[in-house]
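dumping this here before i forget
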Amino acid sequence: MRPSSSARAEDCDLARPECSNCTRNGHVCRGYKRPRVFVNYAASVAAAVFANAEATQDMLALGLTRPKAKRWRVYVGPDLRQTIQPDDTDNCIVASPDSRPSERSQFLSRFLDLFCPDGYEAIAQSEQSAYFWIHELFRSHGQSAALDTAFSTLATTYIGESKRDSQLQRYAAVLHDRSLRDLAQSMGQGGGPADNNVLAAIMCMAFTEVFSPLRNREHGWIAHNKGACELIESRGTALLQTELGRNLFLRLRITGLYSAIGRRESFPLADRKFNHLSKLANANYFDYLIEEMMLIRQLLKDLTDIVTEMEEVVLHTRVMGIFARGNAIIRSLFCWLADLKLKYPHPCVWLGELADNISGSTTIGTAATSAFTGRSSAQELYSQHLGFPNLLVAQAMMHYWAAMIILLRCVLSCVRIVGSQVAASLFLKFQSGDCLGLPFPVAYGNIMGKEQQTACEPIDVLLQLADAIACSVQYCISPSKGAVGPLVMLWPLWVIKDLHANANAEDMVSQRKHEYCLGVFRGLMERGVKFSQPLQQYTPPK
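structure:
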């Protein structure tokens, strides 16, 4: 089949993001510079049979009809367009229920295919909500003009930045202004309270700020989260009547917690009045982990406030209280890990040596590796990497390790006052390795550069947890994880980067690991991610 004459005349370099001429006219796109929707004319074995003129009459006598062409909704990248041909049945993609998909739906489908990780249908329904709330927006388009514009803004911004498409970047800037105007009008209408569509539009704009190239503007991630929290406070349980509302509440609670810990600011969704909402919205083990982490922000704030305390007796009492609260949170996290292992007896496994391109042919791995000089390389720092059943388990385990690092550092800060023997009783629980969540027994000394397999000292516990997060980077930045994979590891990676940055200046290994974390962050910046103020403050690009 040949491309349509109109599409060929335009030389496949259109002003629009994509072209549907070939799809609309039933042709197969060949040689286009931009990805297209493909049409599969050999959808079944019967198609090959009908290609034989002699067998056609026999098949018609059996009541079989000629199979119709299937129209696809999901884009195929430019690197795959030469491998997928009309007679190739091994490379199948999901058929679109719409017989004539619009250009907008094609573009949004391309965004979903790039943004979300693979394996959406393979995981349980309760686990799909962690990343695939955005699929609900695609299925509900047309119900709200503000949401449609915000969703298009997110898709255009992400593809424009990740593909370095200057035309899409300019169009995204126009959509950004239009989305903010439509969202302000929707919030200002007095006809009724804001609904889930407005909350979804706020979330789309918050994610847009992650990839927005408009550096001269104030980063709006935190501002959008505050606006969404105000909306949740005003509506309460009314937002949780739909699955979309529950998913958005959970996502806003998670991102708000990151901002609160990084900026030491108040966190609206951490208030006790939202406990009943959390119990109604929690859908999977990661949601329950975030529930246990809610108290960390107040713990850090109280630990910062005791610096100004001058009276020794009062200081000792307050530090003992912080130590007891931190110990209680750690024990609750132990219980969470035990519950997770009931579903996943082996939540992570050690895999082979790191590949030379550490990230599986991704930009991030190259940037991370290039951050080292001489003999300092990712292979020397981390000789093995971790694998997980799916991305949600990886996200849960990395956040578990990051939370443990924060809590244990709080405990170590209290050691000089409460006494090392009191703190030592807590670290004894880590020596078996069960509470670390790491797959023991294993020659972990190859990673740590030490002979022991389990932690004996507090600093060893912290380093093992930090190395476990670093060894999970390759899994998260693999191409099959889309854009969600790198985003879920931002906060844990920032935690271990801060740990190595505050290590002894003479510790060369910690300095190299700190440079490794910075290299990963720079790779994300090259891919188009724009960090919020806390990450910008601690991770300056070079």
